[in-house]
Amino acid sequence: MASHTGSEGLVKIGANTVSEVTSWSLDETGETIETTSMGDSARSYTTGLVSWSASVEVLWDETDTNGQVAMSVGSSVSLNLHPEGATSGDTIYSGTGIVTSHSKTASFDGNVTASISLQGTGGLTASTV
Q1: Which long-range contacts (CB under 8 A, 24 or more apart) does 43-47 make?
Q2: Is the pLDDT of residue 58 over 80?
Q3: Which of 34, 50, 58, 62 is 20 to 30 A from 102 (CA-CA)?
């Protein structure tokens, strides 16, 4: 069984690696549609539409114009999430995401960080590099 550490991962917008990523998450969901009718003794369902969303946490870097800055609210980006690196054979999740929020946080005794949320539009593809 293969296991991986988070330090192997990275995030790309198109072919550009996003700088200073500290974590990312990917959520995939699927709807169910009820198909139960009168006379049935148990509820039944069928598969509905699927969707996905992602978030990226970074140490804020205003000079990362092709990564962090490119993920401005309202923009549509080609998102590539790499959980185990970007060498041949590694897994990659790809899709088009719309940036729904980009927030920054600062404290007197810590780094300035940013949290970026994206809503997937269309399908998400899992493949290998």
Answers
A1: none
A2: yes
A3: 50
Q: How far apart are CA 94 and CA 120, in angstroms?
A: 10
Task: Please give the Cα distance from 1 to 41 (Å, whole number).
Answer: 42
Distance (Å, whole) CA 117 – CA 25: 10
Give dist(CA 63, CA 16) in Å, integer.
Answer: 13
pLDDT, the chain, mean: 95
Residue 28 lies in a domain: yes
* Average of per-residue pLDDT across 28-49: 96
Domain of 111 in residue numbering reads as: 6-36+43-128
Report the pLDDT averaged over residues 78-99.
94
What is the number of domains present in the chain?
1
Tell me the CA distances in angstroms from 6 to 25, 77, 80, 83, 94, one per residue in order.
11, 23, 15, 7, 18
